[in-house]
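job 3f2a | input accepted
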Amino acid sequence: MNGRPPELSRNAAIGHRLGLVSVLGLWGFYFVVVTIRAAVMAYPGQLDMLIYRVVVISVAIGLTFLLYLFLERFADRPLRWRIPIAFAAALPFAAVIAGFNFYVFEVWDPLELFKGEEWEEQREMIEEFQARDPLAMWRGFAEAVLSRYFVVIAWALLYMALGYAQIVRQAERRAAIFAQEAQTAQLRALRYQVNPHFLFNTLNVLSSLVMRDRRDEAEKMILNLSTFYRTSLTAEPADDVALEEEIRLQRLYLDIEAVRFPERLIVDIAIPKSLNGCCVPALILQPIVENAIKYGVSRVRRPVTVSIHAREENGKLIITVSDDGDPLPADGPHGTGVGLNNVYERLDARYGAESNVTWGPREGGGFAVTLELPINRETC
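job 3f2a | predicted structure (380 res):
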């Protein structure tokens, strides 16, 4: 990943689409509940009431969406401010919805639904009750406002919950970005742990070749060294390369070392053609081959074979790097294990439990390291 990661936003805005869906969902549920209630109570004029109800609910949806637009203006405020703002703003919207409902059903009544005989007795009872208590109508209106207020508040709480979920998703995305950047930094640090002794020894050999006037060999070694470092230091650390390319880089390295050990280093590479396109982390074999040279070839005066073999087994790519050098003495230098740990940590960061690295001495002398990783031909 390149560039600076985006700043984590604390904005709880949920977007117009989700806002509209939440408004439609809540008022749609309210519409269904009220319609079922009217059917259970067997109110007359069910079809006409349904038309009125659709009109009222449509206005309620529009007003609640306006409330949503208003609350979106405070989406970047702390929750302790957004809650009282929502509770306060919901009241006038609920009053307008209740007032429109009263107007449609009680005043306007365009379909004259409440002027039939079946409503006459009930209307007389209401008028008689209002005559005894002049404030009854206002109490009824206040009750209607409160009932709508609770519906609007229920939506407002849902809206704030969705906004909080939005903040959580933003935090999760930022955490994922940080985790990916940390993994990339780890891979970069691990991959750049190229043994400096290799470079020092190569330069010493070059110096020796120049002093002996062996120009052709020195030129070939410089070209190999240049190609090796150009490839190893310019590629992205998280990139994969084809196994064929990885083997090509190791051949370059071994060709350089062959100048140091012309009579001692024998190379044996066996990679089936069917596995050449498998993807592996770049330079994953480098520390292992370096160890084979350092502890297998340089310690003895006889020819030593460094082998790189690959095979497919149970859907996994198995790569073995080994040498047939002398056994390491119990009291001799065994290295710090940095190279092998480097390989293990890179594979673990890249593949997790799907990969494994095992190593140990071979029977009869020498050392072997085996890498196990998933077969993958898509990322390189």
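job 3f2a | The radius of gyration is 39 Å.
job 3f2a | closed
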